[in-house]
């Protein structure tokens, strides 16, 4: 593992790391899966985390053996319907949806002059950051509409370092999704996985909850990794 002192920047996922929005994504997909007659499960919900809107729909259809049942136009209509549902659920969301410890962690990163960027697959991330009152921390964002490949491909986290003018080795990526941890690792950054350690076993550092995200804890974990 690289040394803590060589870290200059943090590349953040949004849904499930900064904000408690992954429950809204899941709720909206669950509703659509019911409508399409596809069996919902916790495993499916986990596999959808960090996955782009259209890829999520494809995965749901595949899970139900319905991948060849709809035209592209129909699929786009279903994806738009899920998004409208999601945006409805987001209405009225405010800073109370910021996950525990995140506001303090972002403030401490700013105070300690770390550079920050956003690597969210969500096209709604600018809106979510505004609603949470956290947009000021993320002038640098990767626009998911410009990506060729979604997570687990390294592209999004590699771009997250690039927009900060840093090398991947100088960055820590923070994720709650298996696909996201894979993306960070293959981009060559140090990965922090937030959530179930069994699901995120490939992360360099694991925390079960965002409240454990502090510079002191990260430093400690990286020093242990140095042996
Ligand atoms: P949208 P993240 C991801 O955001 C979500 O985890 C995933 O559930 C969602 O389908 C994806 O964004 C696309 O979001 O439909 O809003 O464009 O975790 O990468 O911040
Ligand atoms: Mg996420």
Structure, described:
The chain is of the alpha/beta class. A 5-stranded parallel beta sheet has the order 2-1-3-4-5, with helices on both faces. The relative contact order is 0.18. 44% of the residues lie in helices and 9% in strands. The chain is globular, with a radius of gyration of 17 Å. The termini are close together. It contains 9 helices and 5 strands, in the order E-H-H-H-H-H-E-H-H-E-H-E-E-H. It has 2 domains: 146 residues, Rossmann fold, CATH 3.40.50; 69 residues, DNA polymerase, domain 1 (Orthogonal Bundle), CATH 1.10.150.240. The site of 1,6-di-O-phosphono-beta-D-glucopyranose has 20 residues, from helix 1 and helix 3.
Helix and strand arrangement:
Layout: E1 9-12, H1 22-36, H2 42-48, H3 53-63, H4 72-90, H5 102-111, E2 115-118, H6 125-132, H7 155-162, E3 171-175, H8 178-187, E4 190-194, E5 205-207, H9 215-226
Parallel strand pairs: 1-2, 1-3, 3-4, 4-5
The structure holds 1,6-di-O-phosphono-beta-D-glucopyranose and magnesium ion (MG).
Distinctive features:
single chain; 227 residues; alpha/beta; Rossmann fold; DNA polymerase, domain 1; 2 domains; five-stranded parallel β-sheet; 9 helices; 44% helix; binds 1,6-di-O-phosphono-beta-D-glucopyranose; binds magnesium ion
């Amino acid at each position: 593992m690289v040394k803590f002192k060589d870290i200059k920047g943090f590349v953040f996922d949004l849904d499930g790391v900064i904000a408690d929005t992954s429950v809204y994504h899941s709720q909206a997909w669950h509703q659509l899966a019911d409508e399409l007659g596809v069996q919902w499960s916790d495993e499916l919900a986990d596999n959808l985390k960090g996955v782009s809107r259209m890829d999520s729909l494809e995965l749901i259809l595949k899970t139900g053996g319905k991948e060849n049942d709809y035209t592209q136009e129909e699929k786009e209509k279903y994806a738009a319907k899920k998004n409208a549902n999601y945006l409805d659920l987001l209405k009225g969301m405010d800073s109370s949806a910021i996950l525990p410890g995140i506001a303090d962690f972002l403030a401490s990163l700013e105070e300690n002059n770390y550079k920050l960027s956003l690597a969210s697959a969500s096209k709604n991330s600018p809106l979510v950051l505004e609603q949470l009152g956290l947009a000021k921390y993320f002038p640098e964002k990767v626009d998911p509409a410009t990506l060729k490949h979604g997570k687990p491909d390294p592209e999004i986290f590699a771009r997250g370092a690039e927009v900060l003018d840093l090398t991947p080795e100088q960055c820590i990526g923070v994720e709650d999704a298996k696909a996201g941890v894979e993306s960070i690792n293959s981009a060559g950054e140090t990965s922090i996985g937030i959530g179930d350690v069994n699901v995120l076993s490939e992360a360099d550092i694991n925390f079960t909850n965002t409240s454990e995200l502090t510079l002191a804890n990260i430093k400690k974990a990286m020093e242990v990794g140095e042996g």
